[in-house]
Task: inverse folding
């Protein structure tokens, strides 16, 4: 049953995270979290001919692997919730062709992993589904071509720019599990579309930080908790600039994130040696870090109560060229070890 | 409560469709359904400067109007489920900035109206929400520029091509209604991503017909009903070619759609005088026709049991240029007058 507290949704049964999988590219493997990813490939084309096919292969393989990890048959899976950054979300729809499960296409930009987990949880909690997959992917080269310049152009990047992660994450959510799994989704808070007038597509951390702040402030108010009630508060890909801004914005509301806050975009690369400027981004960033680093840590009992807040910058190259500001959104998932 | 019968989801409480609104452009107003649309504008720019801003305005105004029709306050609305065809779904995210409701971005191409209604229904039925808006829009000129050629180019269109509808539809779904409304969503069937090898982006009806056929065949099997049990079976925008194919594909499975089948893409334009080749398309097509023609007919008691099956062609200009085939999907909604 779902108990609604304002816009905060509490799950009385709590969907179970039974399995997860992650795939990344060479640069992510070489980063500080390299040892944690389940799978990586040195070939940036993932055996394909185009960057778009590479991203398609990335999500396809990661979803295939989470199904294998779960030991479920394809026909036992009711839904797949997925989306990505490519125009018309083609890496998800093409990567998941002819699967037996129903396909719910989502678009939340870099918030997609949290959006898919939140939506998937409601489907499970409502008995609309028993087993669902939540997945997303991004690829540096397809994103550069589409959002900025083709790689061959060699354009310079300002210090506030972020580096799109080549990576995918997939999570299996289940209503019941024979394996006595303990990682569960306790509550979710969907975000609103908000616009703070940032127009610089090379500073997406600044565009997204207010959305993350608002979702977190709403959450602490509605749940009557404070940051130290959680083992970790994890944002998706605010990067160094955005995560500094988030801490400042929260502090203004007397919410101190200094103890246990981290950002997947800051964690995934070594900012000093990997030339990524403000850090990692792309919906594969938080998806792969959640599925490789945080969920296994929960499984091992090293973390037992986390907030996962993935943020999305809702821009397109056309809106940026037209001088429009960048609305953003942040969805929150509270994951516990029961 | 949701009762799951295979992949068919039955709602025991049944979310109520209390209000709807539609907006179209001049060409749609001049078509056979012209008198039914709630609102239209002669200015193809909808008072804005770019086609993308026009589409943004189209969804913004339609959502505003469905809220006004419902007499609800903004803060009473829990969620808005929306998506569109523009890259990164920007007309929805930009059109719905700073609304108080949580935003769930969906991407289902032209199936978006059915996808939003199906997802919204589950949120209502599960008690995750009391009031939600499901909305989508498309615009001929923004779609031409993005998917085909800029209008100024004056490219010729083959006879199998369809004409993107300039239109938007929005539906208010509620858990309870004081107004004793009777239009309810009884069951939904989410579709799978399917690929039949069609590579011609100028023949999307052919790409989408098999997805519609499979969803309908699955539905009749799972619900143990036949086409004549319904007052109308409505597809989204298969157009003349796609809807002919759908009837043929269903007939092969001994499902005869000849009695009560229609397609919004065929209905919205006069095929003989309006130069639209195979008919209308775009996610605003089925959204505006459902919200202006079919739902009011149900309200007046002229229809009491319909199947709304919106289909989506999951292509992007990049995948088409790369010679990829076009996967497609169809989601089904059974709407009844209780």
Result:
């Amino acid at each position: 049953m779902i108990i609604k507290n304002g816009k905060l949704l509490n799950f009385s049964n709590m969907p179970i995270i039974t399995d997860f999988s992650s795939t990344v590219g060479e640069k992510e493997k070489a980063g500080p979290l390299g040892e944690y990813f389940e799978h990586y490939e040195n070939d940036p084309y993932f055996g394909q001919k185009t960057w778009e096919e590479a991203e398609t292969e990335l999500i396809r393989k990661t979803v295939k692997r989470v199904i294998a990890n779960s030991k479920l048959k394809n026909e036992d899976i009711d839904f797949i919730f997925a989306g990505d950054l490519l125009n018309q979300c083609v890496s998800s729809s093409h990567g998941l062709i002819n699967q037996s499960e129903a396909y719910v296409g989502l678009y939340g930009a870099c918030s997609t992993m949290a959006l898919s987990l939140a939506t998937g949880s409601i489907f499970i909690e409502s008995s609309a589904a028993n087993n669902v997959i939540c997945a997303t992917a991004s690829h540096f080269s397809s994103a550069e071509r589409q959002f900025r310049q083709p790689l061959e152009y060699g354009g310079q990047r300002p210090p506030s720019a972020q580096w799109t992660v080549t990576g995918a994450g997939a999570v299996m959510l289940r209503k019941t599990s024979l394996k006595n799994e303990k990682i569960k989704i306790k509550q979710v808070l969907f975000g609103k579309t908000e616009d703070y007038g940032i127009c610089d597509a090379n500073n997406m951390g600044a565009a997204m930080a207010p959305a993350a702040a608002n979702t977190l402030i709403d959450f602490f108010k509605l749940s009557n908790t404070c940051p130290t009630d959680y083992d970790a508060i994890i944002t998706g890909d605010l990067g160094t600039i955005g995560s500094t801004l988030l801490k400042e914005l929260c502090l203004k509301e007397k919410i101190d994130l200094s103890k246990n806050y981290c950002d997947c975009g800051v964690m995934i690369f070594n900012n000093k040696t990997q030339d990524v400027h403000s850090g990692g981004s792309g919906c594969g960033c938080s998806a792969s870090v959640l599925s490789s680093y945080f969920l296994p840590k929960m499984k091992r009992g090293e973390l037992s109560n986390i907030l996962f807040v993935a943020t999305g910058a809702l821009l397109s190259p056309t809106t940026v060229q037209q001088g429009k500001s960048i609305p953003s959104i942040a969805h929150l998932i509270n994951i516990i070890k029961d």
Observations:
- The first strand of chain A starts at residue 2 and ends at 5.
